[in-house]
Amino acid sequence: MKIFSAAQIREADAYTIRHEPISSLQLMERAAGACAQWLYGHFDASRPCYIFCGMGNNGGDGLVIARLLQDKGYQATACVLHHSSKASADHQANREALERQYPQSLYDIHAVTDFPELPAGSIIVDAIFGTGLSRPIEGWMTGIVHKLNDLQARHTVIAIDLPSGLLADASSVLMPVVHAHHTLSFEVYKLALLMPENAARTGQVYILSIGLHPAYLTQTPARFHVTDAAMMRTIYQPRQPFAHKGTFGHALLVAGSYGKMGAAVLSAQACLHAGVGLLTCHVPQCGYLVMQISAPCAMCITDPQEAYSAHFHEGLSPAEAVKYKTIGIGPGLGTATATAKALELLLEQYQQPVVIDADALNIMAAYPFLLSRIPPGSLLTPHPKEFERIFGSTRNDFERLERLSQQATQLQLYILLKGRYTAIACPDGAVYFNATGNPGMATGGSGDVLTGILTALLAQGYAPKAAVLLGAYLHGLAGDIAAARLSQEAMTAETIIDCLGPAFLQL
């Protein structure tokens, strides 16, 4: 699914009106109808509804919602906020329609002091600004936002399109914004809905189809995307009848140190369960028995060092390195000076895309010159703190997203920034958000599992872009299956591995 800017959404509306064809009022009726259907399905008519409407088209949506709720027997009041001396034409037309049918449902607000008293447990619908806002809320409307936010604990707040005050394409972190429990947005995600800084403002997000013209949606280019099952099915490569273990590649996993062998085991098991043909693990001597017992399907070579690895580069001369389709490096590796030197030498000798995670990223942060040594097309998988240590701090999530994209382009790497909507920046400037996954995956070892999955997919011959998109999706999907089986609280990184099979079966 593409992510469109606020300007592109307006263009999509206009394109639909011209080419369906359909009137703007009919399109508004369609959008409001989708919202009303959602409200019918989530709340019964026993709870009073207060729809706060701005003077533009988002307010027009709200006026239609009030009328449709009244049609179904709900006690719905449209509270019209006169923040402007002029209403949009569609707003005015829908106000007149509501006045004709349900004149008692209109309540006008000209100042904060006009704010109505709401019965406990009311449904509050925020249809004030939506994506129509291009600057911070000012004046007495700021007081309205504060009033609505003060009521959030005692009422249920639903935002239409976007919570009022939230900018679609830029940070609103220091601005007054309505805090919603649920956001009903239309057709496609807006970038703001995917930013961690807005989580408390948007609540649970629902994307409702309103029938925008498919030609606009398919033909209009977008820099940002959200991955979905349909996209993954075009990437996934089914196995062929005469395939053998050599078909699916030989991967090298460099991982583990004293006290951190669990990370190496999790990554190895994930790599095996994600379909690698052959796996060799390079571990320090202290990890030999651990790996042989915990991952018997993997081969194991040991470093001369007892507690950490410092010689994993030695078997990677150009003649020997070709046997490995890829290398995953970092889980539990440690950051000893000798380990860092070995990583430098490995990157000088091995020229195919690799997967870099965890302590390998921490070494990059300590020795930034190593970034330029990483083979093009490699996959980096930092969490936000690792990203900050390597690439510097930023003022907000939008600025961090831009830096993520710039660095991926500059270094010609795929950088996967972990989070609720993991952001995957590509060398061509495109950014993909992964929608699978849940908070139960915020547990030790989950990232090591991802490293194993990505390493397996690269070894099997997936192109780096396909590997990182499919790997992130499968990782999150396996986490969703684990949460459904065990709960978010009880799941562990091991259960994510156990659910990789069902995740593959869904594709």
Automatic annotation (TrEMBL):
Role according to the record: Bifunctional enzyme that catalyzes the epimerization of the S- and R-forms of NAD(P)HX and the dehydration of the S-form of NAD(P)HX at the expense of ADP, which is converted to AMP. This allows the repair of both epimers of NAD(P)HX, a damaged form of NAD(P)H that is a result of enzymatic or heat-dependent hydration.
Gene (UniProt): nnrD
CC cofactor: Mg(2+); K(+)
Every YjeF N-terminal domain range: 9-218
NCBIfam families for the chain: yjeF_cterm (TIGR00196), yjeF_nterm (TIGR00197)
Binding site for K(+): 58, 126, 164
High-level lineage: Bacteria, Pseudomonadati, Bacteroidota, Chitinophagia, Chitinophagales
Family (UniProt): Belongs to the NnrE/AIBP family.
Binding note for cofactor: Binds 1 potassium ion per subunit.
Residues that hold AMP according to the record: 418-422, 447
Assigned keywords, A-Z: ATP-binding, Isomerase, Lyase, Metal-binding, Multifunctional enzyme, NAD, NADP, Nucleotide-binding, Potassium
Domain of life: Bacteria
A molecular function (GO) term: metal ion binding
Catalytic reactions on record: (6S)-NADPHX + ADP = AMP + phosphate + NADPH + H(+); (6S)-NADHX + ADP = AMP + phosphate + NADH + H(+); (6R)-NADPHX = (6S)-NADPHX; (6R)-NADHX = (6S)-NADHX
InterPro entries (UniProt xref): Carbohydrate_kinase_pred_CS (IPR017953), CARKD (IPR000631), Nnr (IPR030677), Ribokinase-like (IPR029056), YjeF_N_dom (IPR004443), YjeF_N_dom_sf (IPR036652)
BP GO annotations: metabolite repair; nicotinamide nucleotide metabolic process
The protein's name in its UniProt record: Bifunctional NAD(P)H-hydrate repair enzyme
